[in-house]
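Working notes for the structural subgroup meeting. M.R. asked for a predicted model of this chain before we commit to crystallization trials. I am recording the input and output together here so anyone reviewing the notebook later can reproduce the run.

Input as submitted:
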Amino acid sequence: ALARQEVSVEEEKALARQGVDAYFKTKLLALNRALRKLHRADSKPVRLEVDRNDVFRDSFRAFSRLTGEQLRGPLHVKFRKEDGRDDGGLTRHWFLLISREIVNPEYAMFSPVGNGNTSYQVHAASKHQAHHLDYFRFIGRVLGKAIFDGFLMEAHLASTIYKYLLGLEIARCDMASVDAVYFKNLQWILENDVEAVDLDMYFVVDSEEFGSVTQMELKEGGASLRLTNDNKEEFVDLACRRRLVDSIKPQLDGLKEGFYEVMDPTVLRSFSEAELELVLCGLPVIDIDDWRNHCDYRAGYTADNEVIVWFWELITDWDQEMRARLLQFVTGTSKVPMGGFANLYGATGPKRFQIIRVYNTDRLPQANTCFNELLLPPYYSKERLADCLTISIYDGGDVFALR
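Returned structure, recorded in token form:
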């Protein structure tokens, strides 16, 4: 196995000179160096012949016959009954098609979640699918192969899946990007006196499958453990853990197993879940004019306010990577929905991108991802605005606020 891919001292010095934006690019360079070492010149090609109308099953059967080491060979795709030589274009098209098939409702492997249903979480009911663990292992191999060969996936998975693949802690705040309404309900429990309102709740949660509702204990003896102010934080943590991990852990383990059969487990250690999504799915093409035309201003801001003018000047000057990071910071995803910014969704339905004035200029910008809201102080200069936005985008991605 490769030694862990660390950023060199020289690269750290360059980071200090160039700022945080260079950090991700530096890590990408380290990743590319590591992958070049893993590519062997004597690897046998992986020849994949599939029927365009049965891409998922044909690809699953072909991958099942190969070891992870064999899957590191160059991929050559042929579609049955179609002419065409694969110089990379057919392989790129196959990754596009398999991305769509992975989240195809027909297979019930994933369900859409998040703002506008633009990302996908493991479907809890997928456990009833025959061979479902083999399917998830296959999907993990596809994800690993995409990174290994430098191709992009169209489907964006929930950030908790990327965290699980990277071995990062999944916390209660991650629920906001998967189910904003449920997160808001749990947040209410944390912020209020649950004993005063007599909720009559215990350490159990409802689990619904195929119209049948059953109660699941969050811990041993949970059915007789009443919710109180003293134990409500434990209740919320356990409820989030069950929803995001425990109820789908075998599927997540299958994904992770397949992923690291192709990928070396050391080469992604320095990446965050947001960066892994960018590596897998690429940068969205963001239309600044469309973004600006579908933005609302509140609490004293208007389109011609000096800070707002500076904001759009900055966004216009930024590259696609920085724009994608800002979009991810405010909405929870770097992906623009079909139809553009007019079709952005929040927790309660269609919700435009909003910039809201907050008056404490000593604070950093914050985001309400459930409602596509950027809470922006009226900074005294364009330079100060740029610095504070950049810090929030890179360091505030795990901070959620609720209205």
